[in-house]
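hi! just following up on the protien thing from before. the input was this:
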Amino acid sequence: MRRAFTFALCSLLLAGCSSRGSKTVAKDGGGTSAPPGSQATHTVPGPVQVVGRVIAVDLRTLSVIIELAPYATLPADFSGRILMTRLDDLRPTARLQASSYLRGRTLGARLMAGQPQIGNEVVFVPVVP
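and the predicted 3d structure came back as:
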């Protein structure tokens, strides 16, 4: 029984070592190189930056109050930038223009078009280069 177990273990180790593949030498003469299809790429942030959520809407004055997300960072030129509100399934509901009103984690905005609802997510409109 012990010999059968040892034989099975050695067979598995040899099968694992033989199927591992050979290393390819890089053209510069040192180390190994990755296969051409698996080159590492840099991860970049997506084009949409989450600002926060709508907490109040006043259709009479066309003003919208936004509570900033906990880790949201506003750029220095946030005043006047175009924002978009969207539902949880990412369907847009309104377009806003950020104002210079920023008190703590509260941002004011002007309603430009659409019907935002309390709880809608607010994001910066992606800038197309």
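The longest strand covers residues 92-103.
DSSP finds one helix and six strands in the chain.
cheers
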